[in-house]
Amino acid sequence: MKRYEIFTLISLAVVIAIPIFLNLVVFDEQNGSSDEPPQEENGDNNNGNDSNSENGSENEEGSENGDSEEIVWGVDSASYTDEDMYSCVIDNFGEPEVWGRYLGDREGVSAGLDSDEVDYLHENDIQILVIYNHVNDATGYDHGVDHGEQAIEYANNLEVPEGVGLFVDIEPDYPVDAAFMEGWYDRVNDSEYEPAVYGVFDEGSELLEQYNAMEEEVQEDMVVWTAYPQEEVTTKENAPEYDPQGPENSLLYGWQYAIDAETCNIDTNLFRGEMIDYLW
């Protein structure tokens, strides 16, 4: 064999041997420097990730619960809302997020909402709860339909937008039956507005009994604003915990917890956040 051929073979052998040698050395160093098995380290990382994931889920659930339990404070009044009325409420009770007002004048009872008052309330970032209080006798299906028709006409004339709830006011001394509320529900539900009812839904009341006698679908789809139980008038800051009583199978989103404040002609209320969807 010639000299250059021998030299070539030796060079080739060296080139092949060097990577094998280096690999053996590095492998031994890695094994010697690690006291803990790799799988234990991976296990620690997995535990940490699981813990963070669980905490994240709990926080998301808490956030969701918080959203669903949002409570806002507001007032309602039979009086027209001008600057003096607004200042009286702000100075003595706090800033309401909701203001309940009536459709149409009822002599000796309530001043009707008009477009100037609507603009004034909206300019002050207050949403309006729309009340219909032209009922004296809440009995009979056709009677309920007729009052629903009248409420819709009032709302249209005032340009109340689609999706707003119309709350029929059924006072404790009014005769009432399930047929009237079903008539009200059917007519308003067939319009661009949402059917809703206000009343004193105390245990054993005729109103509660008749509400529970309605078709189940109607009960579950009616927005309810209850005036029971009654507590003391308070400022916004000192309002009680939200604890209304009313029909179980209803959208019970509002509680008029106190009436007839002496300083201003208002009643005080608490509303669940869901009520916002039915306000103007």
From TrEMBL:
SUPFAM superfamilies on file: (Trans)glycosidases
Domain Rv2525c-like glycoside hydrolase-like: 99-203
Source superkingdom: Bacteria
Low complexity biased stretches: 44-56
UniProt region (Disordered), positions on chain: 31-71
Keywords: Membrane, Transmembrane, Transmembrane helix
Source organism of the structure: Oceanobacillus limi
Taxonomic lineage from the root: Bacteria, Bacillati, Bacillota, Bacilli, Bacillales
Bias kind Acidic residues: ranges: 57-70
Regions that span the bilayer: 7-27
Listed name of the protein: Rv2525c-like glycoside hydrolase-like domain-containing protein
